[in-house]
């Protein structure tokens, strides 16, 4: 199929692409634009003596999508964006107050060498080593809301086309993603004895997620429909990738003839579950057992089992099993003041980005009818999340051979999280308690909430 070729003269708006000389030469057939849909060969800027650079339009058209739904790895990038959202929801949920923070607790009485019920409320955003007592049952309902939004700047991708073209092209690809999350959690705790309690938690989520791809394209192609928008890059000549990157950056500058275009994955024809989805997160089953008790110090072991979420496609949670053992300690400084600390390691059997060392520590000022908490908590995750794949593979289309794309820049979000924790709890009646907690990120990777708020109510039976 023939396509018009236009040579760029030295008076073009991208003079940086014409370093020396003014001669013009036609593009070699092997470097002619192999676009999709409306693909056209765009510009040919000759650099006599040094090197010749070509801008190549080679992607995102509707006609090729019908033949190859993963053209140039675009569906892989949509899938990576979906994984980014669901893992971000999981990580943010981990920063919320404990799902089963008992309001009524039992503590060790050295005078009677036994546990007795405390008249003071337990902590809200901190974990306590104390249990709720034998035969006691509490039901808690908590709701949280948070937002996440991030624009990941376009990074350079090196696309290598298979034979017979055997060429390389550099193009820019970025991501805009946002999610509005409402998390409702129903949890129950039952005391088997003075030293042991069991708990269960059912999370329900409402997630409104959106994602868009940002990519380099021709300025004169902005009027084309999204599914005919070309992904435009610069040919790598003589193996000089960095030179191609410099040419691409110059083309994206003022008057350079290239620009960045933003289109949702859905508008481009790729699958991303945009809009509002309701789902069930990872149900958890847990237990706590007191292992050491003195007049001022108490330690307990906790363990939680997280079951696979049945609503991964709704961004409610990952479909994998995880276990989280913890050691929890409480140090009593006075009748109303106590310090609470816990540390543990969560092992997810399928998702390394959720494996983490986690900790919380802080103080609680507790009275009979109110309690106030302040502390710090954090996680160090084993693996970063890729917001766009490091390597993508595109299949063959009618106009392009198979290709492999490789990210040339950092494409991950961080692994360290530290939050400031604030909480309060009020006893309304003997059996009804209201609580509120706030988590404010101090150290946070990209695509995490600026603040997380939780309101909870608890009934004791």
Provide the fold topology.
Layout: E1 6-8, E2 41-45, E3 53-57, H1 62-67, H2 74-94, E4 104-109, E5 114-121, E6 137-161, E7 168-191, E8 196-218, E9 232-235, H3 241-251, E10 258-264, H4 265-268, E11 275-280, E12 284-293, E13 297-306, E14 322-332, E15 337-348, E16 356-366, E17 370-381, E18 385-386, E19 391-394, E20 403-407, E21 412-413, E22 416-427, E23 432-443, E24 452-460
Parallel strand pairs: 1-2
Antiparallel strand pairs: 2-3, 3-9, 4-5, 6-7, 6-20, 6-24, 7-8, 7-9, 8-10, 8-11, 8-12, 12-13, 13-14, 14-15, 15-16, 16-17, 17-22, 18-21, 19-20, 22-23, 23-24
Walk me through what this model shows.
It contains four helices and 24 strands. The protein is mostly beta strands and 461 residues long. The protein has a domain of 251 residues: Porin, CATH 2.40.160.40. The strands form three sheets. The protein has a twelve-stranded antiparallel beta barrel with strand order 6-7-8-12-13-14-15-16-17-22-23-24. A hairpin with a 3-residue loop joins strand 12 and strand 13. It is elongated and about 85 Å long. The N terminus is likely disordered.
Give the overall average pLDDT: 83
The CATH homologous superfamily of the domain at 92-148 and 178-208 and 275-386 and 410-460 is named monomeric porin ompg
Number of helices: 4
CATH class categorisation of the domain at 92-148 and 178-208 and 275-386 and 410-460: Mainly Beta
Strand content: over 45%
In CATH, the architecture of the domain at 92-148 and 178-208 and 275-386 and 410-460 is Beta Barrel
Rough shape? elongated
The fold-level CATH name of the domain at 92-148 and 178-208 and 275-386 and 410-460 is Porin
Query: What kind of sheet is the major sheet?
Result: 12 strands, antiparallel, barrel
Structural class: mainly beta
Number of strands: 24
Give the H and E element order: EEEHHEEEEEEHEHEEEEEEEEEEEEEE
Q: List low-pLDDT spans.
A: 1-53, 60-68
Ends apart, CA distance between termini: 77 Å
The largest beta-sheet arranges its strands as 6-7-8-12-13-14-15-16-17-22-23-24
Our Rg estimate from Cα atoms comes to 29 Å
- DSSP helix fraction: under 10%
């Amino acid at each position: 199929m023939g396509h018009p070729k236009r040579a760029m003269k030295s008076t073009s708006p991208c003079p940086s692409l014409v370093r020396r000389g003014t001669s013009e030469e036609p593009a070699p057939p092997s470097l002619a634009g192999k676009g999709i849909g409306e693909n056209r060969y765009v510009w040919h800027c000759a650099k006599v003596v040094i090197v010749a650079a070509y801008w190549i339009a080679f992607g995102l058209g509707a006609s090729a999508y019908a033949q190859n739904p993963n053209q140039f790895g675009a569906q892989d990038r949509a899938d990576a964006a979906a994984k980014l959202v669901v893992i971000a929801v999981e990580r943010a949920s981990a920063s919320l107050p404990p799902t089963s923070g008992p309001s009524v607790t039992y503590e060790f009485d050295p005078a009677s060498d036994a546990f007795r019920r405390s008249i003071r409320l337990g902590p809200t955003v901190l974990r306590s080593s104390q249990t709720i007592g034998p035969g006691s049952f509490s039901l808690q309902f908590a709701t949280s809301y948070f937002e996440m939004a991030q624009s990941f700047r376009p990074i350079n991708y090196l696309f290598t086309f298979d034979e017979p073209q055997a060429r390389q092209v550099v193009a820019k690809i970025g991501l805009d993603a946002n999610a509005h999350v409402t998390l409702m959690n129903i949890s129950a705790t039952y005391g088997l004895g003075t030293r042991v309690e069991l708990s269960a938690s059912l999370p329900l989520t409402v997630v409104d997620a959106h994602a868009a791809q940002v990519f380099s394209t021709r300025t004169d192609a902005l009027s084309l429909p999204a599914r005919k928008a070309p992904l435009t890059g610069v040919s790598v000549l003589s193996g000089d990738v960095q030179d191609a990157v410099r040419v691409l950056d110059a083309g994206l500058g003022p008057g350079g003839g290239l620009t960045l275009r933003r289109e949702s994955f859905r508008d481009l024809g790729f699958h991303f579950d945009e809009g509002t989805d309701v789902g069930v997160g990872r149900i958890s089953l847990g237990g706590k057992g007191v292992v050491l008790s003195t007049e001022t110090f108490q330690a307990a072991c906790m363990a939680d089992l997280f079951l696979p979420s049945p609503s991964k496609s709704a961004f409610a949670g990952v479909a994998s099993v995880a276990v989280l053992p913890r050691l929890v300690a409480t140090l009593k400084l006075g009748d109303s003041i106590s310090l609470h600390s816990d540390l543990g390691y969560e092992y997810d059997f399928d998702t390394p980005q959720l494996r983490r060392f986690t900790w919380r520590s802080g103080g609680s000022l507790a009275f009979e009818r109110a309690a106030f908490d302040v502390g710090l908590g954090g996680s160090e995750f084993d693996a970063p999340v890729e917001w766009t794949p490091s390597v993508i593979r595109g299949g063959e289309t009618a106009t392009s051979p198979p290709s492999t794309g490789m990210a040339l820049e950092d494409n991950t979000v961080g692994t360290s999280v530290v939050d400031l924790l604030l909480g309060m709890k009020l006893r309304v009646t003997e059996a009804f308690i209201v609580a509120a907690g706030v988590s404010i990120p101090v150290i946070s990777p990209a695509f995490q909430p600026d603040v997380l708020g939780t309101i909870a109510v608890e009934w004791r039976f």
